[in-house]
Design brief:
It contains 29 helices and five strands. By secondary structure, it is of the alpha/beta class.
Length: 575
């Protein structure tokens, strides 16, 4: 089992911690991301997060040594070497596999690289969007110009630091609408509001020879980075191809400004900051569209062209430096060994891992050391069983499960230990993007109108939603099991919820009169109030006055406990 953790602040300024688990489902032959729980925390430091996660695992009777992998974002509170959560986790589980959020790392690399560009370029991207953001009149005028130049009718995008792909998308949209934007701002600079709205400055930047050239260069490079970012946001297993994908893209970026003879070295030995390895400025690869524009509209003089090329070179150098800093590029790193999880690599006679024990020793919870001999034999036999394997799917999640159908002469499973190891490795996380999806769902549940919902109430709703979705049916087609119906009728569901929910939360969610003192009759009150809300929401002829009288009158309080079970059955039937 692997778990993925992230912390955020919701609309009511409460710190919540979302914990998800990733495991390989043998019945469905695929990797499942499941929400474990959402808890509210007071301390978001590494030590505080460690205490919260330990408490959560203890409450659900999950031993920590079941954890084989952990993924989160790259904040110091999570991945700090000394006091981050991963440091505390490694003390309890020394063999845990830890990987920062790949998508977040790519975004940070691009952000650092953009800091090497002229400052006016970032401001230009922001100004273009802000000019249209709060004016429907301008948006309408811009649409008219889009019709004239036959440009796609699309709105300008906003540049955001928290959205990983926003910069590349904003640049691509501005280039798509370049002709329409030029005509629009030519007309805008003649209005009286120029000094306030900055239309003249935007038009000046667009007219400056070199702005479009730089945007085309950035669109070319960031487009490739965003493609990798999108690939590793996928929920499918990607860890087996992570090293090869990153290494190929890193080598491709180096080739844009580094001499060919240098690229024959190992990637880890190449220093992108070593200027002695650079190409001439005129030989830097700027992308096809940028090169074509330079031919049609050359820069004014040699000095401007040299400055432009230097900016592009600095951008590429910083991008490669950040990638080398954030991703393991050594040829003997664990990511290289994990490539054998891909069936194509495992069946290759020239595979990188000759002894599977090199990989198994890194994950002692998956295969015991006394089984290493059997594991090595099965790893070797895999190369000579191609005829038995030729009809199997070469998708990793299906292959290592389907391999269990192959049996030896004694009618025993031939690759049982190997399958157990590989199915366990399939659960290793390559990203924690799925946790971000949980926070988006939290924001849809806890809105401005329902801003007093507690963390465990939100978790209950999301867990119920995921329980239905895992059955791959629509909510209106879902049928509760007989066990669930029995638990509702006997009150087990209500008792479990009451146990998890504090009395203060019950008062916050259900109390109509907060100044009423708590007593032994609070639980019947809560039940009748819930029933009242149910009747009121579905329009049954049960007036508020009669129900509230039954709840709070002395006679009614004496009768509530005796009729509670009967009313629970009635509530179940109404629901």
């Amino acid at each position: 089992m692997c778990f993925l953790v992230d912390e955020s602040t919701d609309i009511s300024v409460s710190q919540i911690l979302a914990v998800m688990v990733r495991y390989f489902d043998q019945r469905k032959s695929k990797v499942i991301d499941a929400l474990l729980d959402i808890v509210e925390i007071d301390d978001a430091s590494g030590e505080g997060l460690n205490k919260a996660v330990k408490k959560l695992h203890a409450s659900k009777d999950i031993p920590l040594h079941n954890i084989i992998g952990f993924a989160s974002d790259n904040r110091s509170a999570m991945l700090g070497i000394n006091n981050g959560f991963q440091a505390f986790l490694k003390r309890d589980v020394p063999s845990v596999f830890i990987l920062g959020r790949t998508c977040h790392s790519f975004a940070l690399c691009a952000s650092h690289a953009c800091s090497q560009l002229p400052s006016f370029l970032e401001q230009f991207l922001r100004d273009v969007c802000c000019y249209f953001a709060h004016s429907s009149k301008r948006q309408h005028q811009f649409q008219l110009i889009q019709d004239i130049v036959e440009s796609p009718k699309r709105r300008m995008l906003k540049l955001s630091q928290t959205r990983w792909l926003s910069r590349g998308q904003v640049i691509a949209r501005i280039l798509e609408q370049w002709d329409a934007l030029e005509l629009f701002f030519q007309a805008e600079i003649k209005t009286e509001a120029v000094k306030l709205d900055g239309a003249a400055e935007i038009h000046k930047t667009m007219a400056n020879r070199g702005t479009k050239h730089m945007l085309l260069f950035l669109n070319y490079v960031l487009g490739n980075v965003d493609k990798m970012n999108l690939e590793f946001q996928s929920g499918y297993f990607r860890l087996g191809t992570l090293y090869a994908t990153i290494a190929d893209e890193y080598r491709s970026l180096l080739a844009m400004f580094v001499r060919e003879v240098v690229l024959s070295k190992t990637l880890a030995s190449i220093d992108p900051c070593d200027s002695s390895q650079y190409k001439r400025l005129d030989d830097i690869n700027l992308g096809g569209r940028c090169q074509a524009l330079l031919m049609r509209e050359p820069l004014p003089d040699k000095e401007v062209k040299k400055r432009f090329s230097l900016y592009c070179q600095k951008f590429l150098v910083e991008l490669c430096s950040q990638m080398k800093k954030r991703f393991p590029l050594e040829e003997d790193c664990l990511l290289v060994k994990l490539q054998v999880v891909e069936p194509k690599e495992a069946l290759n006679p020239q595979r990188s891992v000759k002894s599977i024990a090199e990989l198994a020793v890194c994950f002692p919870t998956l295969v015991k050391e006394e089984d290493f001999d059997v594991l090595q034999d099965q790893w070797q036999d895999l190369l000579y069983a191609k005829e038995s394997l030729q009809n199997l799917s070469h998708n990793a999640t299906s292959f290592w499960q389907d391999i269990l159908i192959i049996k030896d002469g004694n009618n025993l499973v031939k690759f049982d230990v190997l399958s157990k190891l590989m199915c366990g490795l399939l659960a290793l996380p390559h990203s924690s993007a799925c946790v971000e999806i949980v926070f988006s769902q939290v924001n849809m549940v806890k809105t401005k109108q329902a801003n007093r919902l507690q963390a465990n109430t939100i978790a209950d709703r999301l867990l119920a939603k995921r329980a239905i979705s895992h059955q791959e049916v629509a909510c209106h087609e879902w049928e509760p099991s007989s066990v669930l119906i029995s638990d509702v009728n006997t009150g087990k569901c209500h008792q479990s919820h009451t146990k998890r929910t504090s009395q203060s939360e019950q008062a916050t969610l259900h109390s109509w009169e907060p100044d009423i003192a708590s007593s032994d009759t609070d639980e019947p009150k809560q039940f009748f109030l819930q029933l009242f809300l149910l009747y009121y929401s579905i329009g049954l002829p049960q007036g508020p006055q009669s129900l509230l009288t039954a709840i709070y009158s002395p006679v009614g309080l004496q009768q509530q406990q005796s009729c509670k079970n009967e009313m629970q059955v009635g509530t179940t039937r109404v629901a």
